[in-house]
Amino acid sequence: MAPAALLLTRVAAATVAVACVLSLGAMAQLSPTFYDASCPNLQTIVRSGMAAAVQQEPRMGASILRLFFHDCFVQGCDASILLDDVPGSFVGEKNAGPNANSVLGYDVINNIKTAVEANCPGIVSCADIVALAVRDGVNLLGGPTWNVSLGRRASTTASQSQANSDLPSPASSLTTLIAVFANKGLSATDMTALSGAHSIGFAQCKNYRSHIYNDTNINKQFVNTLRSNCSATPGASDTNLAPLDTTTQLTFDNAYFGNLVKKKGLLHLEQELFNGGSQDALVQQYSTSPTLFASDFVTAMIKMGNISPLTGTAGQIRANCGKVN
Ligand code: HEM
Ligand SMILES: *[C@@H]1O[C@H](CO)[C@@H](O)[C@H](O)[C@H]1NC(C)=O
Ligand SMILES: *[C@@H]1O[C@H](CO)[C@@H](O)[C@H](O)[C@H]1NC(C)=O
Ligand SMILES: *[C@@H]1O[C@H](CO)[C@@H](O)[C@H](O)[C@H]1NC(C)=O
């Protein structure tokens, strides 16, 4: 080979090597354009799937938002929460204490996954479908929108024990809440902004009973209304629902923070955020500034969505969100 041609070959080889390293590096990063070439209709399909689900049952916007939180806090945002238990061989997260008979919306994600597979089979992870569906659910209920970084892959494992240990209980103190979120790299501000997710959706009596019967930092009239549908003793009323946001229950807005200022938090943990402690000033600000709340909520959602993603060749693209390939 002539020296010039050899040199060119070497330059080309070096360029290919550099390009490979760059693309490996890029693969480890989530990006909003990740599926632009491989599944250009993805965002339209997810949006219309969520629009149909929310039209049929507005609560689904809230349920998918909670599902995402409970996924991301356990092994990262890897769709581990979607894996079904297989008796005798696989223990998933669906039956962990905070999830069992409480997290809803699995069918909504499975239906969207089916629609996505019909359009671009084997390309899009269940973890990314959830991240997009959450954004659309919030937005369809009147909340902000944001660009979702993509490229998360789905786990081949789940951890019921981590779901039991790492998800916060509604009886948590402010100190515990701050620590539980710090454990996932989220600040107290992120935690307070994210709690604004309780602007939509419902809780069962068993989760607010102790707050309405044993706590004193609660509005008297509000307590009386709630007690009429949630008896002091466990029993038939355990699963009765009350809206988390007593003023604008299925609209994603900042009214939840106004409720806290009026001591109308439904759950113990919520009122902990406005009870003479470090988050009082922020709760007060969110209650008067919808734009500050929306902007901090979006920032914190993006941070939560970036917890320990599986990227590159880690994990897999499941054919069915409920089971490992
Ligand atoms: C700060 C700690 C948190 C605790 C202790 C907590 C606890 C709870 C509890 C006990 C319920 C009611 C569940 C039931 O009765 O079945 C609930 C509902 C809900 N949570 Fe949280 N939560 C927290 C933070 C979050 C975060 C960070 C998000 C999302 C960003 C979120 C989203 C929701 C939503 C949307 C609902 C209503 C779900 C539905 O109606 O299906 N929560 N939460
Ligand atoms: C999403 O990204 C595009 C392109 O960078 C940008 O023009 C747009 O404003 C972003 N949208 C939001 C809601 O941040
Ligand atoms: C209230 O607190 C007492 C004492 O801790 C406890 O025995 C009781 O079960 C609590 N009641 C409710 C409704 O949580
Ligand atoms: C009482 O609980 C039922 C069952 O969850 C619910 O449908 C109803 O809206 C609740 N009533 C009030 C006044 O909150």
Automatic annotation (TrEMBL):
The active site is at residue 70. Residues 29-325 form the Plant heme peroxidase family profile domain. It is an enzyme of class 1 (oxidoreductase). Binds 2 calcium ions per subunit. Binds 1 heme b (iron(II)-protoporphyrin IX) group per subunit. InterPro entries: Haem_peroxidase (IPR002016), Haem_peroxidase_sf (IPR010255), Peroxidase_pln (IPR000823), Peroxidases_AS (IPR019794), Peroxidases_heam-ligand_BS (IPR019793), Secretory_peroxidase (IPR033905). The lineage of its organism: Eukaryota, Viridiplantae, Streptophyta, Embryophyta, Tracheophyta. It comes from Miscanthus lutarioriparius. Removal of H(2)O(2), oxidation of toxic reductants, biosynthesis and degradation of lignin, suberization, auxin catabolism, response to environmental stresses such as wounding, pathogen attack and oxidative stress. This is Peroxidase. The record marks 66 as: Transition state stabilizer.
